[in-house]
Amino acid sequence: MKTKILLVTALLLLLLTTAVAAKPVITADHTYFDINSGHYVLNGNVRVETGNRIITAGKARVSMTSREVWGYDGITVTQDNIYFTGNSVYVQGSLRTARIDGSVNFSRAGLQITASQADYNWKTKRAIFRGNVRVTQNGNTWTADSVEYNIKTNTIL
Question: Where does the signal sequence lie (predicted)?
C-alpha cells in the first residue's frame, strides 16, 4: 500500500512539474489583462518564451487558455537554430503552428528564404513559404511562387 501511495505521489509530482515547465514566460514594457477578451495585451519589447521557442514583437496579445499569440510590429520566432522574422505572427500553441506574414525572412546556416508569408509546424518540422519566394542556398539563388522546406532533414521538398 505504501508503495502505491509513493508511486501515485511521484506521478503527480512529475505531472505538476511538466505542467509548470510548459507554462510560457511572458515579458513586456507594458502589460495588462483585458477581461472582456481574456487576453493579455502587451506593448514594447514583448517576449514570449515557451521552452526553447521564443517570440519577440513590439506588440502582442496572448491567450493563456487557448495558447494563442498574435504578435505585431516586427516579430522574430526562434527555436534552436531556426530563425524567422516578419511583420506579424499568429501562433496556435495547441496545434504547434505559426503563421508569419509580411516581409518574411528565414535563415539557417547555408540557407536564406524570403517570402510574403510562411506557415511553420513545430510537430512536422515543415515550413511552407508563399508569395515572392526567394531562396539562397549554398551560393545559388532562385525564385518560386511557393516552397516547402523540411527543417528536420534540411531539404527543400
Answer: 1-21
